[in-house]
């Protein structure tokens, strides 16, 4: 039996005058990438210096203005990486390098040594403040924990005297989600007071991490709004959040935090990080983009980002990952496929200013997914999806009545084999319709205009050469146009009774090499069976005659 009683609910705040539920996200936050620190330390095979340099350059090109690069005081590879960035002059003047250090003198001194020559630095210090860690890890009182944070702040302030660049202090009460809100505020206020030099023009960053996600996002948002209201000098503080994803709600936590007053978000590309990961910055940025908000990051080419991430991090992006997964712009369900097909058709006809297609919150081409299949076909797919593939990939705009007929053919294949590719669908279409040439196979056509013949009720004569089970034959027939004449001639020649119910045609492509497709919906008047025939030719009349022969063969007439 599941022993759920071993666990207890985490406390919520008594905060009834919250305002964040009535707000909307209106602009992008300050983004800080922690891929090279929090993300890298969670990799089975951490990045080497060359990979970290490549990743850093890509983050800069994406538009990140704040990038945390690691613990230069705790790892030689991270120290060397930082120095390489400096020596090779790879850090733009408008990009702030963030470095992390515990509140210990030797580590802070080593960090200052590593950052020499950098113009703008965020010096990030932290210590754990949670109830549990105070008890079982540090065995320290609240005052001792607060004193540790204050001493670390004063060490950084002292180290600034011999540093030529600009320092922005960032402080994180680690395990903030397990810390009493009032006490976390008390520690942060003590850090700000010890810093003593924060102003609206040169603020301090207070970073409130959900180091371990412990409750629902609304509770975290309450804590953020409460803290924002109770800071003494809120205008001199950049309030940052650093959500993890232990409960699978890191993105929601970050978004609700922005509603609650947070100014800044620390996260990683695709959510890489300890345990279930950090918050996925791309997920939040694409969410904003889908709501008409400029995310302030260059995220037009998700495939390029995937390639870099998978190569450097040695982790594959999940196929259902929001926006980036290989299957997220794919529909298997028949009703979804039909809705997407109709939505795209409506967009092409109406040319609206905004994107409006069912089941596709954004246009895949806007993020570099233009050439990937939107609709894929398996046993759950319907007629709309098959029709979409035939139109989008191959230019065959099948009549609506034909959708179900051909989809049934494809479904029998998918039930036996699983998903089928567009090429397989086209090969089946060709075998079922275009190559339906037995027993009768159309060969040649001659048309004579009889409109001046006063003794005939018909205006067209056709001469058709065909083979029946490989034996060449021919006939002449008259009618009101080539299709009518061919139908009359075939009924007499083959002793069959057929009726053409519908006829459609369209160009397959434009230009001097253009071809036409013709569709004939035919009834066998003796049995009541109906089917479609399809013909293709550079001449529309020949395409139509081929479609008639295709339909007769599919009805298994003329043996």
> Which percent bin holds the helix content?
25-40%
Biggest sheet strand order reads 1-2-3-4-5-6-7-8
Number of helices: 17
Structural class: alpha/beta
Number of domains: 3
**CATH H-tier superfamily of the largest domain:** Aldolase class I
CATH topology annotation of the largest domain: TIM Barrel
What is the rounded Rg?
35 Å
| DSSP strand count | 14
Q: What's the assembly state of these chains? A: single chain
Percentage of residues in strands: 15-25%
Instruction: Please summarize the sheet with the most strands.
Output: 8 strands, parallel, barrel
Average per-residue pLDDT, rounded, comes to 93
Tell me the CATH architecture of the largest domain. Alpha-Beta Barrel
What is the molecular shape? elongated
Low-confidence stretches: none
Task: Name its key features.
three-stranded antiparallel β-sheet, TIM Barrel, about 550 residues, Double Stranded RNA Binding Domain, alpha/beta, 17 helices, single chain, 3 domains
Can you tell me about this structure?
The chain is of the alpha/beta class and 559 residues long. The chain folds into three domains: 31-313, Aldolase class I (TIM Barrel, Alpha-Beta Barrel); 334-433, no CATH class; 440-554, Alpha-isopropylmalate synthase LeuA, regulatory domain (Double Stranded RNA Binding Domain, 2-Layer Sandwich), CATH 3.30.160.270. It contains 17 helices and 14 strands. Helix 8 packs parallel to helix 9 (250-260), helix 12 crosses helix 13 and helix 16 runs parallel beside helix 17 (540-554). The chain is elongated. It starts with 29 loop residues before the first strand and ends in a 5-residue tail after the last helix.
């Amino acid at each position: 039996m599941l022993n759920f009683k071993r666990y207890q609910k985490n406390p919520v705040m008594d905060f009834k005058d919250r305002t964040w539920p009535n707000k909307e996200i209106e602009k992008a936050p300050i983004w800080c990438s922690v891929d090279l620190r929090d993300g890298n330390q969670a990799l089975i095979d951490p990045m080497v210096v060359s990979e970290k340099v490549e990743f850093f350059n890509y983050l800069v090109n994406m538009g990140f203005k704040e990038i945390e690069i690691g613990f230069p005081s705790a790892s030689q590879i991270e120290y060397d990486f930082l120095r390489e960035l400096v020596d090779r002059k790879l850090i733009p003047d408008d990009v702030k390098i963030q470095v992390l250090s515990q509140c210990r003198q030797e580590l802070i001194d080593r960090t200052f040594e590593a950052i020499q020559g950098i113009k703008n630095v965020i010096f990030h210090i932290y210590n754990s403040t949670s109830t549990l860690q105070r008890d079982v890890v540090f065995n320290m009182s609240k005052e001792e924990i607060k004193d540790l944070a204050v001493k670390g702040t004063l060490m950084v302030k002292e180290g600034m005297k011999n540093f030529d660049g600009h320092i922005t202090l960032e402080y994180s009460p680690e395990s903030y989600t397990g810390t009493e809100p009032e006490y976390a505020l008390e520690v942060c206020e003590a850090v700000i007071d010890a810093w003593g030099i924060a102003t609206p023009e040169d603020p301090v960053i207070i970073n409130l991490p959900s180091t371990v996600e412990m409750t629902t996002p609304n509770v975290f948002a309450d804590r953020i709004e409460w803290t924002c209201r109770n800071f003494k000098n809120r205008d001199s503080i950049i309030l940052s959040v650093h959500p993890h994803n232990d409960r699978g709600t890191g993105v929601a936590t970050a978004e609700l935090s922005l509603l609650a007053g947070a100014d800044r978000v620390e996260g990683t590309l695709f959510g890489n990080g300890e345990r279930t990961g950090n918050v996925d910055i791309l997920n939040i940025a694409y969410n904003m983009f889908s709501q008409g908000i400029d995310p302030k990051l260059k995220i037009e080419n998700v495939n390029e980002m995937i390639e870099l991430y998978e190569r450097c991090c040695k982790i594959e992006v999940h196929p259902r990952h929001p926006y980036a997964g290989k299957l997220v712009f794919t529909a298997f369900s028949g009703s979804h496929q039909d809705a997407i097909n109709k939505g795209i058709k409506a967009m092409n006809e109406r040319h609206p200013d905004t994107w409006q297609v069912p089941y596709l919150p954004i246009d895949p081409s806007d993020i570099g997914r233009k050439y990937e299949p939107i609709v894929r076909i398996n046993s759950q797919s319907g007629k709309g999806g098959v029709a979409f593939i035939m139109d989008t990939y191959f230019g065959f705009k099948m009549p609506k009545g034909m959708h179900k007929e051909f989809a049934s053919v494809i479904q029998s294949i998918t039930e036996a084999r699983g998903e089928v590719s567009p090429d397989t669908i086209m090969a089946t279409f060709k075998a079922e319709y275009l190559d339906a040439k037995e027993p009768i196979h159309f060969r040649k056509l001659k048309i004579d205009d009889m409109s001046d013949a006063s003794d005939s009720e018909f205006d067209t004569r056709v001469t058709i050469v065909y083979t029946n089970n490989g034996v060449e034959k021919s006939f002449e027939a008259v009618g009101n146009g080539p299709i009518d004449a061919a139908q009359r001639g075939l009924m007499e020649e083959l002793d069959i009774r057929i009726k053409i119910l519908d006829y459609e045609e369209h160009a397959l492509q434009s230009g001097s090499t253009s071809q036409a497709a013709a569709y004939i919906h035919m009834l066998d008047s003796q049995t009541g069976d109906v089917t479609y025939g399809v013909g293709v030719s550079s001449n529309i009349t020949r395409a139509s005659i081929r479609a008639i022969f295709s339909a007769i063969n599919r009805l298994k007439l003329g043996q």
